[in-house]
Amino acid sequence: MKATTPNQSFSFSGIVCSTLGHDYVISRKITNHINEYKCTNCGKEVTDNFAGHLENLTSKTKQINTSLAMFFEKKMRRKYAKVV
Ligand SMILES: [Zn+2]
User: Ligand 1 mean position to 31 CA, how many Å?
Assistant: First the structure.
């Protein structure tokens, strides 16, 4: 746990991110082409969308990704089942 208050760390991170850009790491893999990312500085979450652009991760896009991940997993399983 950090000793700084959320407000202080948020504004500091905001400056770092607006100056240097967000430092995204993959937080969840949805498909081969779609991932969710989280900024290690400010905690901002984004996701790849169908168009291949980054989009803000909201509860709605999170839900879409969850169904997409389930669909993708099923599809992959079926694909492997056919091969074997
Ligand atoms: Zn950031």
Answer: 23
